[in-house]
Amino acid sequence: MQIVTTVDSLRQILKPLSKEGKVIGLVPTMGALHDGHGALIKESVKDCDITVVSVFLNPIQFGKNEDLDKYPKRLEADAKFAGSLGADYVFAPSVQEMYPDGDPLTLVRDETLESLYCGAYRPGHFRGVLTVVSKLFLISGCNHAYFGEKDYQQVFLIERMVKDLNFDLQIHRVKLVREDSGLALSSRNEYLSEDEHSRALGIYGGLKQAKAAYEAGERSVSKIRDIVLKSILAARGIVQFVEVVNQKDLQKFSGMLAPEDKVVILVAAFFGKTRLIDNIELN
Ligand code: AMP
């Protein structure tokens, strides 16, 4: 396991490997790695000859009042963890290395979904994500890249970007990994107090109840949505959004769901100062 910190040195390592025909997998992360990231790394190691895990806290995807400064950082431990799962390189550039001229003036944007759901509450977030992910694709020349369904809107936008811009690589979706308690694993869970952590289980509790209701025949979008809302409110969470949306285009459903509708519920809620996201596919 080698930590690489510059664009040039990563290219110098990966280009010859690529020429030899080695298949390169990329796992983009912001660090503070946990078993959710681990699932992505394992997939890449299984599919690819070389796995590169990027650890970059991307400032342009954070809003002014968000948690950029307090986000947990532990590069050495991350490199050890990634290496223990079979990753070959950790790419950990500085902000100066990624954005030598300051915030980039060329940005990758999604015209429609960047202002919905997470994007509605985090203006500029998705253009920051799509821009840095594009840079990482171009820097690494990867053949495969791995993203978690924990960030459901993000992986959808990345898949669409790859298609729209003809990136020559394959995106892999990895299922959301939860703690035994049911809480979706997230680097931000470290911010939760014990009390907030136990209350935050109300998110998955509500999602599971909604799925059970769907499986028992409930097709009313508002009733399904209310089940999740009630569970989070009962746990004294502050709901940012609960939306019942189409897996295929992430557009909101309303009224009654049809049998052929592919449905996912997207949630964002605060417990204390910590914003958590989660989702569940109903079918
Ligand atoms: P982050 O470091 O939070 O930007 O996440 C990096 C990648 O790991 C993204 O593709 C996330 O969707 C994925 N990821 C984070 N947490 C989980 C989880 N609990 N289950 C599956 N994937 C995850």
Task: Outline the structure in words.
The chain has two domains: 2-174, HUPs (Rossmann fold), CATH 3.40.50; 187-278, Pantoate--beta-alanine Ligase, Chain: A,domain 2 (2-Layer Sandwich). Helices cover 39% and strands 19% of the residues. It has nine helices and nine strands. It has helices spanning 7-19, 35-47, 75-84, 95-98, 118-121, 125-140, 152-164, 194-215, 221-234, and strands at residues 2-4, 24-29, 50-55, 89-91, 144-148, 170-174, 238-246, 263-271, 274-281. The strands form two sheets. Strands 1-4-3-2-5-6 form a six-stranded parallel β-sheet, sandwiched between helices. It has a three-stranded antiparallel β-sheet with strand order 7-8-9, covered by helices on one side. Helix 2 (35-47) links the parallel strand 2 (24-29) and strand 3. The protein is globular and about 55 Å long. The model has no long low-confidence stretch (mean pLDDT 98). Adenosine monophosphate is lined by residues 29-30, 36-37, 39-40, 147-148, 150-151, 174, 176-177, 184-187.
Write the SSE topology.
Elements: E1 2-4, H1 7-19, E2 24-29, H2 35-47, E3 50-55, H3 75-84, E4 89-91, H4 95-98, H5 118-121, H6 125-140, E5 144-148, H7 152-164, E6 170-174, H8 194-215, H9 221-234, E7 238-246, E8 263-271, E9 274-281
Parallel strand pairs: 1-4, 2-3, 2-5, 3-4, 5-6
Antiparallel strand pairs: 7-8, 8-9
Bound molecules: adenosine monophosphate (AMP).
Adenosine monophosphate (AMP) binds at residues 29-30, 36-37, 39-40, 147-148, 150-151, 174, 176-177, 184-187.
